Amino acid sequence: MQHMSLQLGCLSCSDSARADLAPRDRVYLSPRWRVAHAFGTQLPGWLVVLPRRHVTVLDELTLAEQAELGPLLAAVTAALRETIHCGKTYVALFAEAEGFEHIHFHVVPRTDDLDPAFRGPFVFALLGGDTATQVPQQVRDQIASKLAASASLRALSGRWDEEG
Ligand SMILES: [Zn+2]
């Protein structure tokens, strides 16, 4: 059923359809939502939360998708606080870059030692840019595995698995 609502040529959709997702691409996986470690970021623990269906505007989410989103954003934040030891998280939705219109919430760990130059919306300067300074794939896999094993995400995962 989900495959009917996937969009050809959308990276988020083609990733969601994969049966062999790498740890970095499945921090959390339910019938409705997926959480991945962002690629091209310099900040370890920078996550994206995205619906499994191709959705490009927030109000296109079904009520069931909306119902899971709030607890998921909270659980992702709890997992980051526990694992990355950040005081809080930033959450942002843009989804307008070409090829990335599939909505995705950026959940960014705000650590105490974050350079003041990168606080608030300026944190997006840590996405993209020089590949040499980006979090390597194996580190993203390691962080993602730790987050996936956190009590908060595992508890939520069990809850939605039961409800389907
Ligand atoms: Zn899509």
- Alpha carbon gap, first and last residue: 13 Å
Cofactors and ligands present? zinc ion
State the CATH class.
Alpha Beta
Q: By helix and strand content, what is the structural category? A: alpha+beta
Domain tally: 1
Average of the residue pLDDT scores: 92
Count of helical regions: 4
Task: Trace the largest sheet across and list its strands.
Answer: 1-2-3-5-4
Report on the biggest sheet.
5 strands, antiparallel
Work out the number of β strands.
5
Shape: globular
CATH architecture: 2-Layer Sandwich
SSE run: HEEEHEEHH
For this structure, the CATH topology is HIT family, subunit A
Task: Please indicate the percent range of residues in DSSP E strands (runs of 2 or more).
Answer: 5-15%
CATH homology group? HIT-like
What keyword list fits this structure?
164 residues; alpha+beta; HIT family, subunit A; 5-stranded antiparallel beta sheet; 4 helices; 5 strands; 15% strand; globular; binds zinc ion
Report on this model:
With 164 residues, this protein is of the alpha+beta class. The chain has a single domain (11-156), classed as HIT family, subunit A. The chain is built from four helices and five strands, in the order H-E-E-E-H-E-E-H-H. It has helices at residues 11-16, 63-83, 137-148, 151-163, and strands spanning 28-29, 33-37, 47-51, 88-93, 105-110. The protein has a five-stranded antiparallel sheet. Helix 2 (63-83) packs across helix 3 and helix 2 runs antiparallel to helix 4 (151-163). 32% of the residues are buried. The mean pLDDT is 92. Bound molecules: zinc ion. Zinc ion binds at residues 7, 10, 12-13, 54, 102. Residues 7, 10, 12-13, 54, 102 line the site of zinc ion (ZN).
